Amino acid sequence: MNKNAVKILTAVLILGVLGYFFYEKSKDKDSVVSSAVSSGEKAGDSTSSGINLSDYDKIPREELYADNDLAKKTLDELKQRYKTDFEQLVKEMKATGAKLVFCWITTEPTIPMQRVGKEFISNLCKTNGVDFIDFVPLISNKKPEEITFMPVDGHFNENGARILTNEMAKYVKKYDNVKTTATYTERPKVFGDQDPNQNTITDGGKNLPYKLVTNSQGLRMDYDLTFPKTKQRILYIGDSALFFPFLDNNKTGSGQLQAMFPNKEVINAAKIGYSVDDYLSLWNDKLKYTEPDIIFLQSSGDDIADLYFTHRIKYSRKADEIKPTETELSLYKTLK
To answer: Are the CB atoms for 269 and 287 separated by under 8 Å?
Structure first.
């Protein structure tokens, strides 16, 4: 057999092996390949609920806070939806004996979405007996470029993450002896919604490269959780504010807190774009099985607005189940 024939045969063999590998990985719901396929399906013509995604590409923000009856009715629906899921989440977390601490984090405290949201959510926390930490006073006297990646991006940089971490550390010390009463004999293999076993450099399309590492359990951590646990566990659950894009793992808030408390295990299950409905389903599906003792739940007025259906069909972990109400559809017709 000549050299050219050998090369061709080798190339065919390699392509065959790669094809089989990607076929098998596409059937694994926790694989990177499967995630890409799922994303492609969600970006297609419709969801299982019959919504044609291409018809609903606008995501309202300030329009939800406009001074008109339709906007007020829509916002009331979203607030009620938030309240229902929030109270159920609090109930289920408290039932495990864990200590829940709510983190109000925003770099835009004066806009209507945050002003209205803060009053509503802080009252929910008070009514449901949840500690409410307002981080705004800690960062309001700082220049944006001191604590965020502005002017490129508004997420917290290492210094901003450190400010949050130092405040959260006070609550870790306060609840040092809290222990959950919940234990499980059976649990899922994956606890978070990140693709497992990542070790890659990414930049979010903003030329702000950072190293993203996840464990085999789909959490933004450098090690796996084992059972039975031997240390107090602290859970971060929220959206991008606690995910800390553009920061290496050790520079994120959870990474810094882990370094401060090596005798504890800090779990980062935050996911960009998530809202309270995602936190509830993620808790029930996966996170409760990590047996956390202290839970830092992060949210802001964004999470109320994010319950509007055009945001949900793009970012929700159960996007295929989203169905807009008549009020939401009526408001959509007014968007420019």
So the answer is: yes
What's the predicted TM-score (pTM) here?
0.84
**Model confidence pLDDT, tens digit, residues 150-191:** 999 999 999 999 999 999 999 999 999 999 999 999 999 999
Q: Please compute the mean of the pLDDT values over residues 131-143 and round it to a whole number.
A: 95
The token pair at 160 is 């901003």
Query: Tokens at residue 261, please?
Result: 């408390």
Q: Residue 257: what residue type? A: L
- Burial label, 27 (beta-carbon count in 10 A; 0-12, 13-18, 19+): exposed
CA pair distance 297, 281, nearest whole angstrom: 14
| SS3 of residue 265 by DSSP | strand
29-62 pLDDT, tens digit per residue, is: 333 222 222 333 333 445 555 667 678 999 999 9
Cα(first)–Cα(last) distance of the chain, in Å?
Answer: 67
Burial 67-103 (b: 16+ CB within 10 A, else e): eeeebeebbebbbebbbebbeebbeebeebebbbbbb
State the DSSP code for 128: T
Count of CB atoms within 10 A of residue 336's CB?
Answer: 4
> Cβ of 11: how many Cβ atoms within 10 Å?
10
The residue type at 323: K
User: Closest Cα partner for 31 from 190, 205, 259, 262?
Assistant: 190
DSSP 176-229: TT-------SS--S--SSSPTT-EEEE-TTTT--EEEE--TTSSSSSS---SS-
pLDDT cut 90: percent of the chain above it: 83
Whats the size of the chain, residue-wise? 336
Of the pLDDT bands very low, low, confident and very high (cuts 50, 70, 90), residue 266 is: very high
